[in-house]
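Weekly sync, protein design subgroup
Attendees: M.S., D.O., the rotation student, P.L. (late)

Item 1: inverse folding check
M.S. brought a backbone from last month's batch and wanted to see whether the design step gives back something sensible before we order anything. D.O. pointed out we never logged the input encoding, so this time it goes straight into the notes. Structure tokens as presented (176 positions):
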């Protein structure tokens, strides 16, 4: 059993610490674990922050204690846990399967390749165009909302895939 699988589907908030340089801490609810991946409903303080596919091998620790239990009560009382009931059904059999099923539900994904040896991380605001055994071909949007040429990204480099976040939803409205 993985560190996260004990928390999957429990509707109990956890704090996940990862060994990645960006998004080191993830607060939220583990929805499903499979194939070395986990689907998490993320929260940023009192705001639901979409869903993320993360690699279990990047997990350093998982905390589910009195702080998380207190936040469970607050979030429930505020009516902010609807995303647990409306969670997307994502195939976590592999990163390729996860991206493919996420892309079928959400037009834009945030795909991150976090490398602890690099000062700037690769972040793609993109649509997944095609997936092979080794790469996902992305049609990316630059910081000005313009489409770029398709870019192949090695699946082994992808550390996080986010979907249905406020950032993605808002930015997508302004893509040219």
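Designed sequence read out in the meeting:
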């Amino acid at each position: 059993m993985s560190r996260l699988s004990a928390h999957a589907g429990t509707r109990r908030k956890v704090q996940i610490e990862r060994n990645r340089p960006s998004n080191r801490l993830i607060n939220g609810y583990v929805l499903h674990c499979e194939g070395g991946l986990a689907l998490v409903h993320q929260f940023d303080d009192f705001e639901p922050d979409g869903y993320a596919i993360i690699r279990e091998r990047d997990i350093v620790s998982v905390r589910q204690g009195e702080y998380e239990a207190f936040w469970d009560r607050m979030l429930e009382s505020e009516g902010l846990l609807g995303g647990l009931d409306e969670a997307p059904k994502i195939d976590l059999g592999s990163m390729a399967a996860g991206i493919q099923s996420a892309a079928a539900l959400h037009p834009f994904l945030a795909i991150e390749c976090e490398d602890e040896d690099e000062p700037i991380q690769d972040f793609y605001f993109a649509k997944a165009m095609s997936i092979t055994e080794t790469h996902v071909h992305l049609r990316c949007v630059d910081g000005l909302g313009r489409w770029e040429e398709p870019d192949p990204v090695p699946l082994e480099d992808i550390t996080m895939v986010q979907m249905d976040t406020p950032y993605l939803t808002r930015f997508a409205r302004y893509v040219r």
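Discussion: The CA atoms of residues 108 and 127 lie 5 Å apart. The radius of gyration is 16 Å.
Action: P.L. to compare against the previous round before Friday.
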